[in-house]
Amino acid sequence: MFRNYLKIAWRNLWKSRLLTAVNILGLAVAFTASILLVLTAAREFSFDQFHDHKQQLQQLYISVHHVQGTEERSNLPMPLTPALKQEFPEVKAASRFMDASGMVRYRDKMYGSDVMGVDPDFLRMFSFPLLSGEKQQPLRSLSNVVITERMARKIFGSAEPVGQSLEMYLEGRWKTFIVSAVAEDVPDNSSLEFDMLCRFEHVPAYADQKDAWNSSTHEVFVQLSDQATAAAFERRAKTFVNKYFAEGIRNLQRDGAVPGKDGALIGLHLMPLTDIHFNSISSSGGAISRFYPYMLLLIGIFILFIACVNFMNLTIAGAFSRSREIGMRKILGAFRGQVIMQLWGEAVLVCGLALLAGMAMAYFLLPGYNALFSNRLSLNLLRQPWLLPGLFLVFVLVTLVAGGYPALMIARLNTIKVLKGSLLTGRSNRVRNVLIVTQFVISSLLICCTLIAWQQLNYLRKKPLGYSKEQVISIPVPYNVDAELALTRMRNQLSGHAGILAVTGTDINMGRGRDGSSATSIVSFDYKGREVRSHWLRVDYDYVGAMGLQLVAGRDFSRAYGTDSSALLINEKMAAQLGGMEAALGALLPVEDSAHPQQVIGIVKDFNFKSLKEEIGPLTLNINKEWPLQYIFVKVAAGNLPGYMNLVKQQWQALYPGSSTDPSFLDENTDRQYRREQRFSGIFISAAVLAIIISCMGLFAISVLIMTRRTREVGVRKVLGASVAGIVTLLSKDFVKLVLLSVMIASPVAWYIMEQWLQHYAYRIPVNIGVFLLAGAIALLVAVITVSIQSVRAALMNPVKSIRTE
């Protein structure tokens, strides 16, 4: 019986080769796209899932309710972790996590690396397996260091690394360490990244800040006991906060700050480790919003649904040519279940072939997909326990929906009508129309969302930021180079070259450089009986001119004034905090860690020194050399930008041979801030194009079947004098109505979804009706072209031949 069903199914599919090809191709493309989209989403959801104790691992963060608004940050004071372990028995383990160094030296050879300072609990909490060396307490001694397998090969080659000594550049000098263990390389789906681990006591300024509760520098992770809950911990943390942050709470109360919903001005909270990849509060996380992977899954479902609708429409429409076969089967004694099994079996065969083709296409396209969208996907993601069962479940649902429903519908039809060929009733046409509308609703929705996302990203790239970014080269200064001396030497080397307009320095890059850096520094102090908070930017002479900043009051830093080393420039937002322009200019600010009050000598126009996702905040610029420089900026003339970049690289190598640095233009850095959005936007655009193509494949095949049924009608109309244009309009108008209806349904849904997405941006475009008109025009144009191809062909046929057809 099964063999007979299979043989008949194969014959029927071969007989209707056009419909079969359209079905298999459409489903195969849909399966391919869905597999790639699901793999992309699965990678994002896989972050930090490999840790054995992931359910108990949490990251601490603090919320502070200032007068200006609520601040949430994961940077915490150095003495917090020891106090936490002492006062919270439910904290099984805890570790601080902070960048300690970036340079390692072995036998006079230097290597760039990410050296992180941690506490001894770190490797007991997190699942970073140790391959060799001391596995129980590898960071027992302050002179111990744990190195990853990749760095061990890079530094020691094939030699045994355990027991070897190397040097790290820490706080301006080289210190010797002993490799106590080698760890497996950190997985690429880990939010915590490192090349080496050393004790936290080696991080910058530890000796000065180990007892300072008013300075926040690093992240803290805790492992709760199995019986403890995050909610219970946060309730107990209120007493802890009141004890150790008492001064900060008093200052907030004095300024009139309003407590949060829990009644606290300062709160200590926990964030599950598996959430930090999606949370911008965490310094280690915040890579993307959960919106993106969920949207990828949804788009994958949409594309599969569109392909299923094609299959259903074509199966129902194609059944007209098999009406007498179905009728004869029923007269000869076939039960309804047998007819359903026969028709559903054909659907399973088509879907199976499409799935195999889709998996093969996904395998071969994966390298190109990774390169195009800067992904690091692997088919190893399919090993996740939910993926393969999910794929099988999707396959079963596709066959049931795409093949089962049409089979059930056809098998239930009246036998007499079937034998007469009256298979496609008005009801089936309504079902077909509903499915076509649903298809194009999804396609139009994707087009609308993609257009709005593209407009927003284009707006972010082109919006004036208030400073010059096109002609400024940013040079990251390596850890082992004296930045102040490097700035002086680069000024001297470049001053005689035509086209070099200015050379200056800063401690924070603009945007995100090729070194991956993105930092901020915030300083708070009491001024006239209230707290003032400001972003703090260390700059050097000529910074205002090099960056094209606009002075609105006062003057710039000048070498002619010896007191400018304790002077400040502020932006307009900071001036507003100090009481306005007149009150701010000349004000003496009692900045912490400064021996004397520092005077405001100038005010610059507000500029976007952070991502456009954030509003401009208060900013203070200083040239105090106690704040070390980390970047050198070179302003060059317009024109030969690649030539100037080569000149800067050559001069750096001449001054520091063998010292690696990776300069970049600031406009590249600002664009790099939005690369994740650009990557996902590219995926969405591709998905929208695919959805339209698959929809049009089904629409084309449906139009072929309908034109075939109306061939005689077309011939009669031509004989009676109908024009080609009139016939094309007649045959196409029903499809045009369906597409227009789809756009009308999709537009308000797209507007709501994108309004929610745009809320994440401080600077955003308004969503206007033009986007929906354009999306409708695109969908309509594509649909009209698709249908008109067959309509024109039918209208141009010889009427005599058309009347003899059918």
TrEMBL record:
MacB-like periplasmic core domain residues: 20-238
GO annotation, cellular component aspect: plasma membrane
Entry's localization field: Cell membrane
Record's keyword annotation contains Repeat: no
Membrane topology, from the record: Multi-pass membrane protein
InterPro entries: ABC3_permease_C, MacB_PCD, Macrolide_Exporter_MacB
Domain ABC3 transporter permease C-terminal: 298-414, 686-798
Organism: Chitinophaga japonensis
GO molecular function: transmembrane transporter activity
Domain of life: Bacteria
Name under which the protein is recorded: ABC-type antimicrobial peptide transport system permease subunit
Coiled coil: none
Keywords: Cell membrane, Membrane, Transmembrane, Transmembrane helix
UniProt main location, coarse: membrane
Signal peptide extent: none
Pfam (any one): FtsX
Chain ranges passing through the membrane: 21-42, 291-320, 341-366, 386-413, 434-454, 683-708, 735-753, 765-789
